[in-house]
Amino acid sequence: MIGKAFRVSIFGESHGKCVGAVIEGCPPGIEVNPDDIRRDLERRRPGKDEFSSPRDEEDDFTILSGVFNGRTTGAPITIVVWNRDVDSAPYEKIKDIPRPGHADYVARIKYFGFNDYRGGGIFSGRITAALVAAGSIAKKVLEKFGIEVLAYVFQIGNVRMREDMTLEEIRENLPKSPVACPDLEASRGIVDLLRDIKNEGDSIGGIIEAVALNVPVGLGEPPIDTLDGDLAKAMFVIPAVKGIEFGAGFRLAQMRGSEANDQLTVRDGRVEFRTNNAGGILGGMSNGAPIRFRVVIKPTPSILKPQRSVNLREMREVDLKLRGRFDTCIAIRAVPVVEAVFAIVLTDHLLRWLSWRGYWSSGGRSTG
Ligand SMILES: Cc1cc2nc3c(=O)[nH]c(=O)nc-3n(C[C@H](O)[C@H](O)[C@H](O)COP(=O)(O)O)c2cc1C
Fold first, then answer.
1. Residue 149 belongs to what domain range?
2. pTM of the full predicted structure?
């Protein structure tokens, strides 16, 4: 489960009937517009561009509980996203031959062979549709407090976006990029790169950057449930995430304290930081600056290029030639997933922070 106040668990398998999420602890009265959920799911949906898996899912969903007359009731919310375009035949042929880079081998050992291996089962990117649906509700809670979350492709292969882009430019350009990269020149470079990679029958990794704006000071519950710690843990719920860095991240290793420290100033009667190398988090708590982190997503494990694996029934090495439906680069479709999980963790910590501030006595409007 992600969260302690706003709690999200997910269920379902790639080729089962559905994937879904149960959200507990969501305050009552939050407006739920199915069009918002649909819009978020659409950004993650496969089959809509030349580089994503041609699995043609409508991502048709049903809210089973917790929403009445268009608003949350305070009871657990259950959302299911139905699986329609399921083709399990290719997986029957390779059920004894684990795909390198995928969870097949480990899952077979851990679950004594009882796991649903079709389409990767619970280890499929499909489960992220449930996270996106839950994140859509979390965003509605954040919206009430003016908190905005945004994610986009920062880098694919060696093609990286300009780092001096303003948030306005990023917001304006994002809908124009077919690969969710706000730097449109980099976006074109990524499209060219992906065409080459796809022609080679291969895949490639990428980095997603995420930003949250207007987060009040003090979200995070040190010493254990730090905001950065909880974000990191939740990001690893997303399959294929292999690392996370906050603010200047691993570049901090090359910096002096005098350069890394975000010095304080006062602007319009408010404390601000002159730089944001901390990525908006100090001591495991939000410091009022934009929260900014990057996650690295590995290349799609399933590729058309032949690879060596092992037939586990016969215990001999074999050539594995996959014939299936894969993304050339997972990072692009994972963008709304990162955004959703970010929103879920922030909502959890916002509710925990508000409980100290007397959420009910302030009518849920106080942002400190
Ligand atoms: C949105 C999304 C789509 C994915 N699509 C595929 C895919 O088409 N083929 C594949 O082999 N892996 C895909 N994955 C990645 C695997 O699910 C993941 O690599 C696998 O579960 C092993 O887990 P790990 O990479 O976290 O170790 C996808 C992941 C995400 C987030």
1. 7-356
2. 0.95
